[in-house]
Structures are given as structure tokens and as C-alpha cells.
Specification:
This protein has 9 helices and 14 strands. The protein is of the alpha/beta class. The protein has 2 domains: 236 residues, 3-Layer(aba) Sandwich (Aspartate Aminotransferase, domain 2), CATH 3.40.640; 99 residues, Aspartate Aminotransferase, domain 1 (Alpha-Beta Complex), CATH 3.90.1150.
């Protein structure tokens, strides 16, 4: 099936804006008359340095990153940050973690190797169908940071508020970064693997308050020390050059659409198409509770594994790809990131309506 007939609901790596792919194709063998590809350039060359600087500036402007914070372009995925965060920030103390899905759970387990971890909130008892309210969070006096995962990619829940606590906030925004305006000054650290909402897999963006640099545990590898990485402007070693370039193209597209405010309007439009249908459906049911629902990953099921499988297969046959839920959650998941046009969601809802009519 050709691309124009496909809507790709993959949770990650996921759909990229078509204009970004087209620009990359056009520049692939010969970047701006240099005679070489971005893939073939030295990361120390002026040509690449310009790409790096303009991508960093673009992200700074689009997200409104204040001068108090630095932006790092790293490798190792979001998962490496599960270890890097405690190594750099926990010192000889403890940290508070909210466990609202599998990735925050993994992050908390990893952090236990480096310091004491307190579970400040936990929604596992109800199958991760909700986000705890501010009044439910149990903060620890003197905690070095409070960690949470802004959007739970697997279970389809999302924090709709920024928690208030005296400790620096650390947030995994892998699957909702750049989808709505964020007041970066409220965070000690924001990080995101690029492959959900930004670029191909291989790049992790870390935005860190410079006041937090230099607290790393003595055994922290250089390549994981935020201080060292910041001092080298992410070029201690070879950065993920191609992914940084692709991020730049995605950011160009976001800016042309009207920035993160426009992304916010689009995410609301896409999500309400799906949730409105789900809430009135006689066959499908949404997993996440209202008030905790993700704008990026909509999880649902029929309650019958065979029927779910039939639905997923039938979707793929008409170009609605990758609707299968994560293996730990089951059911279906429609990942509707920035680059998913509302028409794609409308097509999905139309298919759900037809499926429903033939199954009640
Ligand atoms: C995908 C994802 C991760 C894991 O990312 P990797 O880059 O594979 O390590 C972590 N957190 C969230 C919220 C994710 O969506």
C-alpha cells in the first residue's frame, strides 16, 4: 500500500511529518550543495555545527527554554536516563517517584541502585488507568527530586497538571514533548527519547537546569555526566548527527504549523474524536479514566481478545496500521502524535463505527 493510503498509529518509532521526510530525501545525497550527505559529515565540521546550533535554537524557541537551562542531544534512549538521572541528581539522599505506568516503574527500579527511592504515588492497583491527584502524592522531606512520566505511552494516561513540590521536578516527556506549551522554568529536568514525537530513534533530548549540574556520583561515566556533556555542548563524543538533523526538520514543520499552541489544538481535536466515540460505543471501551486520558496514546479494547485481534487485522487491511496494544496492556492502542493528521483519526473512527455495526 502506498504512503498516501496509510495512517500509521505506531507508538514508536512513529509517524514523521511528511514535509520533514521530503526535505531529507531531497537533501539526502548532497546537503545544500556541499556534495556530501549529513550522514557523511564530521560532527566537528562547520556544516554540521550549523545544523546542530540551529536545531538547538529552534527547540529552545519553540519550547521557550529559559537561559537557566541547557539542552543536550544524547544517545542511549530514554532508558539510559533512568540511570543517568539518579547518578546525576540523587547524591547521598533519596528521590520521590510516581509510578503510573511501566516506564516510570522501570525508572524507579533502576534508581534504587543509586539511592533511596520513595514511591510518592502509584496507580498499579487499578491497572494504571489513572494519574494520582496532587493531594494523593506523598512527598518526602528533603528528596533530591520528584520524578514522573508525563505521558504513559503503554497505558494511555497523561498528567494534566504539573505537580507542586519543593524538590526539582524531573519529567519523562518522551511521548508528549512538543504537543502542548510547557513552562520549562518549573522543571529541574525534562527528557525525551526522540522516536515518538520528534525524530528517528537514536536521539534523546535532555533539558536540564544548569543549577543542578555537578552533583553526579563519583563513579558516573563521563558520557552520562550532565555537567561534562553540557561543558562539551553534547559533543564529548559523536552525537547522533542524523537524528539531530531530522529533529531540525520536524521543528521547522512544527513552526510552520503555528508552534506548540497549534500542536495543542490539534491534539485536542484528534483525541476528542476518539474519546467521544469510545464513550458512546457499545463495543469498544476506553482504558483510561476521564481526567487522566492521554492525548497521544488512546488505549481501548472490546473486552474480547479474539474480537480485538479481528479489529486490528481488519484495520491493517485498510491501511490503519499498528493498532495493537503493548503486550503488557493488551487490547488496542492508537498513537496519535503531532504528525498524525486528524483525517487519520477520522478514518479510524469511521472504521470503528463500521466494525461496531457488524458486531452488535
Ligand atoms: C518509549 C518510551 C521510553 C523508552 O524509550 P527508549 O528510547 O526505548 O529507551 C521511556 N519512556 C516513555 C514515556 C516512552 O514512551
Amino acid at each position: 500500500m502506498a504512503r498516501e493510503n496509510i495512517f500509521n498509529f505506531s507508538a514508536g518509532p512513529s509517524v514523521m511529518p511528511l514535509p520533514a521526510l521530503e526535505s531529507a530525501r531531497q537533501q539526502l545525497p548532497d546537503y545544500k550543495g556541499s556534495g556530501i550527505s549529513v550522514m557523511e559529515m564530521s560532527h566537528r565540521s562547520k556544516l554540521f555545527q550549523d545544523i546542530f546550533d540551529s536545531t538547538k535554537l529552534s527547540l529552545k524557541e519553540l519550547m521557550g527554554v529559559p537561559d537557566t537551562h541547557d539542552i543536550l542531544f544524547l544517545q542511549g534512549g530514554a532508558t539510559l536516563q533512568f540511570a543517568a538521572i539518579p547518578m546525576n541528581l540523587i547524591e547521598d539522599g533519596c528521590a520521590d517517584y510516581a509510578v503510573t505506568g511501566n516506564f516510570s516503574k522501570k525508572a524507579a527500579v533502576e534508581a534504587e541502585k543509586y539511592g533511596r527511592v520513595n514511591i510518592a504515588g502509584d496507580s498499579s492497583a487499578t491497572g494504571f488507568d489513572r494519574i494520582p491527584g496532587q493531594e494523593e502524592l506523598k512527598f518526602t522531606e528533603g528528596a533530591k527530586y520528584f520524578y514522573y512520566c508525563g505521558n504513559n505511552t503503554v497505558y494511555g494516561t497523561e498528567w494534566q497538571y504539573v505537580p507542586e513540590t519543593s524538590a526539582p521536578l524531573v519529567c519523562d516527556m518522551s511521548s508528549d514533548i512538543l504537543s502542548y506549551p510547557v513552562d520549562v522554568s518549573r522543571f529541574g529536568l525534562i527528557y525525551a527519547g526522540a522516536q515518538k514525537n520528534m525524530a528517528p530513534a537514536g536521539l534523546t533530548v535532555v533539558i536540564v537546569d544548569k543549577a543542578l549540574l555537578g552533583r553526579e556520583l563519583p563513579f558516573t561515566p563521563q558520557v552520562m555526566s550532565y555537567k561534562v556533556l553540557s561543558e562539551h555542548d553534547s559533543m564529548l563524543n559523536t552525537p547522533p548527527c542524523w537524528c539531530i538533523y531530522m529533529l531540525g526538520l520536524t521543528l521547522d514543520w512544527i513552526r510552520e504549523q503555528g508552534g506548540v499552541k497549534a500542536m495543542d489544538a490539534l491534539r485536542r481535536e484528534r483525541a476528542s474524536l476518539l474519546y467521544d466515540f469510545l464513550d458512546n460505543s457499545r463495543v469498544f471501551k476506553a482504558h483510561a479514566l476521564p481526567g487522566s486520558r492521554s492525548f497521544m496514546n488512546v488505549t481501548f479494547s472490546t473486552g474480547d481478545a479474539e474480537l480485538d485481534a479481528e479489529f486490528i487485522k481488519g484495520g491493517a487491511a485498510i491501511g490503519l496500521l499498528n493498532l495493537k496494544g503493548h503486550k503488557v496492556a493488551g487490547g488496542m492502542r492508537a498513537s496519535i502524535y503531532n504528525a498524525m493528521p486528524p483525517e487519520g483519526v477520522q478514518r479510524l473512527v469511521n472504521y470503528m463505527k463500521e466494525f461496531e455495526l457488524s458486531h452488535v
